[in-house]
């Protein structure tokens, strides 16, 4: 799809009405706006090129790469294909769909403040969607080069965390289920379920054959670009890319020679998911992953942890390609659905329907499970008198052994 024509303005954009500020970044700010023509609420990304003229180049690159995606790309943030330039303030404005859930960094930070990690069910689901978005980038011949939580936008707010953990821990607040339980199940079971996660911010994005072929790489005119902690070691020049300019020909290792592979984005994905699962920033050095990867809790599927471990491998050759990554995350999500979370939530909702007037604050999940009402003893110890005889006999044998060791006579009082 062709890049949009940039509208040139003398001042305020007459096509949009400013509503409120949403956030600030290194290159500018994001605001909520209303499109005058149809009243649609949207977002406006304003890039301030006055303080740093290089931002104009990044903005132009973002327009070019972002506009190449069609509206049918579900896991890519929706670009409105509308751009404006204000000469007086040297501001470039890009208009896009508004995502009410904010960005993933905001959710991770909020959950960390609440001392309650993002539930593994949702983290695995989001990882699957982000992997699909990354595959869409590479299928379009684009390396993102700055994949991180701040560049993943959420379609709706994440308000289910406490409820999901309550279900998992076996004791959930009635108020949480009443407020969010049915909405969550309806969302998940909907055949037309819309994606939650959307990759955005293509300022460092680049069209290159390296996105399509793992043996190719590209060098940026700016050298190493990206965000520290999410940049692959070959991007930082810590190791040389194994392949030279000729595909399939292995060259000698050369230090301080930054290269970008499609699998450099896969490394960034692994760092993002680590942050998502643990709430902790990824390590600044790739060599620390051997111990850090163990911090992903065992509540996640084993397959999930195996794939993420491969994503952050020091050697790009050992990382999965975008297709294997997408399939691996999908398989991990299928696996985590066997945890019983959804069936337990359905039982809690059924309990609320049958007893809506209960004064109880909590619902005990174990009391609602089928096995809780059909308990049978696993062993048959006989009637109580026989059990007591066996216990008395065992105690007498134990006492006799102790007395023999210390050399005292055993006196048994008979009743």
Description of the structure:
- The protein has 415 residues and is an alpha+beta fold.
- The protein has three domains: 6-97, Phosphorylase Kinase, domain 1; 104-155 and 195-339, Transferase(Phosphotransferase) domain 1 (Transferase(Phosphotransferase), domain 1); 381-415.
- The protein has helices at residues 54-66, 104-113, 120-139, 161-169, 174-189, 233-236, 262-278, 289-292, 302-311, 322-336, 341-354, 384-406; strands at residues 6-9, 16-24, 28-35, 41-48, 79-86, 91-97, 142-143, 152-154, 171-173, 197-199, 206-207, 362-364.
- A six-stranded mixed sheet has the order 1-5-6-4-3-2, covered by helices on one side.
- A hairpin with a 3-residue loop joins β2 and β3.
- The protein starts with 5 loop residues before the first strand and ends in a 9-residue tail after the last helix.
- Mean pLDDT is 85; it is low at 240-254, 378-382 and 408-415.
- One of its GO terms (molecular function) is ATP binding.
List strands and helices in order, with pairings.
Layout: E1 6-9, E2 16-24, E3 28-35, E4 41-48, H1 54-66, E5 79-86, E6 91-97, H2 104-113, H3 120-139, E7 142-143, E8 152-154, H4 161-169, E9 171-173, H5 174-189, E10 197-199, E11 206-207, H6 233-236, H7 262-278, H8 289-292, H9 302-311, H10 322-336, H11 341-354, E12 362-364, H12 384-406
Parallel strand pairs: 1-5
Antiparallel strand pairs: 2-3, 3-4, 4-6, 5-6, 7-11, 8-10, 9-12
């Amino acid at each position: 799809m062709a890049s949009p024509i940039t509208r040139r303005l003398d001042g305020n954009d007459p096509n949009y009405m400013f509503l409120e500020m949403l956030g600030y970044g290194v290159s500018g700010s994001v605001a909520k706006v209303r499109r005058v023509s149809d009243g649609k609420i949207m977002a406006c990304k304003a890039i301030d090129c006055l303080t740093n003229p290089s931002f104009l180049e990044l903005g132009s690159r973002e327009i070019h790469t972002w506009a190449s995606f069609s509206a049918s790309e579900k896991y890519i943030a929706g670009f409105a294909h509308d751009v404006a330039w204000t000469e007086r303030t040297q501001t470039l404005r890009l208009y896009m769909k508004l995502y009410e859930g904010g960005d993933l960094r905001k959710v991770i930070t909020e959950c960390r403040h609440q001392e309650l990690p993002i539930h593994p069910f949702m983290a695995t689901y989001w990882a699957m969607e982000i992997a699909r978005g990354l595959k869409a980038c590479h299928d379009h011949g684009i390396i993102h080069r700055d994949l991180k939580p701040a560049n993943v936008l959420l379609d709706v707010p994440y308000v289910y965390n406490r409820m999901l953990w309550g279900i998992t821990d076996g004791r959930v607040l009635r108020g949480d289920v009443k407020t969010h339980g049915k909405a969550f199940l309806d969302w998940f079971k909907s055949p037309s379920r819309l994606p939650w996660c959307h990759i955005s911010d293509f300022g460092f994005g680049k069209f290159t054959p390296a996105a399509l072929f793992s043996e190719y790489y590209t060098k940026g005119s700016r050298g190493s670009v990206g965000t520290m902690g999410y940049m692959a070691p070959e991007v930082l020049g810590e190791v040389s890319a194994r392949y030279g300019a000729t595909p399939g020909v292995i060259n000698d290792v050369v230090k301080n020679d930054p290269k970008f592979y499609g699998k450099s984005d896969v490394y960034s994905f692994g760092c993002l998911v680590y942050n998502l699962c643990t709430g902790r920033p990824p390590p600044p050095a790739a060599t620390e992953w051997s111990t850090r990867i163990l911090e992903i809790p065992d509540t996640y599927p084993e397959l999930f942890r195996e794939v993420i471990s491969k994503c952050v491998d020091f050697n790009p050759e050992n990382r999965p390609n975008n297709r294997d990554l997408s399939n691996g995350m999908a398989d991990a999500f299928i696996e985590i659905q066997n945890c019983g979370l959804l069936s337990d939530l359905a039982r809690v909702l059924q309990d609320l329907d049958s007893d809506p007037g209960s004064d109880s604050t909590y619902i005990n999940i174990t009391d609602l499970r089928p096995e809780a009402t059909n308990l049978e003893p696993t062993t048959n110890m006989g009637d109580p008198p026989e059990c007591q005889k066996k216990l008395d006999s065992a105690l007498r044998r134990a006492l006799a052994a102790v007395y023999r060791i210390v050399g005292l006579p055993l006196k048994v009082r008979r009743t």
